[in-house]
Amino acid sequence: MWYNLVNTANRDEMRMKLFTIGYSAYEREEFAGTLRMNGIDCVIDVRSVAASRYRPEYDRAAIGKFLSGQGVRYEHMPEEFGARQMKREYLSEEGYTDFEKYVLSDSFRAGYERVWQMTEAGKTCVLMCAEKDPVNCHRAVMAARYFSERGWTVIHITPDGNETHEQLEMRLLDLYFPNRYQLSMLDEEKSSDELLAEAYKEQNRKIGYRKEDGNASVYHRIHENNGGGLL
User: Fold this and answer.
1) Are 40 and 145 in contact (CB under 8 A)?
2) What is the mean pLDDT of the segment spanning 71-88?
3) Residues forming beta bridges with residue 202, ordered by sequence position
């Protein structure tokens, strides 16, 4: 089991930092410049299939070679962090990947451990997927949430500037509970943490990969409007 791989009791995860980015917002040279600007020297590709019908320069072999030439390490980690986790034990009752179930898997936690080890060794890592807005991507709603809840500082790089994971969570709350400050005193009150947990579940339902999602439908559902790319 994952928890037997390493003793985590004495390590300080509060000092660890992780970035995320969606490549569809950038031309390749601009992408490399953005990495340099943020001090990133390790790209972790979290697409289940590292290919793009619209941006072939971001296919696994192409982007790996390009980043190597920029002095940046490239890792493709689909088994650990990919969105297409379709084993029965990871599915919701509705048939989509349940992020809260998957992050408890040995595969995900082994990936977490690998990122921790690279960061501890001095690498500054970024989780890369296609989606421009992290709130619409499993890299934030699944993976970054897990890192953040364990004390990591998580920064989402966007074309409009960097966003902390705490700021992203406020956007999630605004998306699903825009009137949360106007609730009547007679209404059943829920804590911010409870509302946030519900917002995460709703966003998971919206973007989670489903069995019926072939290449075409998953593009139309979320990603085609933001430059294409397979989860």
Assistant:
1) no
2) 97
3) none
Exposure on the CB side of residue 221, measured as CA atoms within 13 A: 17
Fold of 15-226: Protein-Tyrosine Phosphatase; Chain A (3.90.190)
User: Given a cut of 50, is residue 7 above it in pLDDT?
Assistant: no
Spatial strand order of the sheet with 42-45 comes to 73-76, 42-45, 125-129, 17-22, 153-158, 161-164
pTM, 2 dp: 0.87
Q: Judge whether 212 and 84 are in contact, CB under 8 Å.
A: no
Specify whether the backbone of 130 is left (phi greater than 0), alpha (psi in -120 to 50) or beta. Answer: alpha
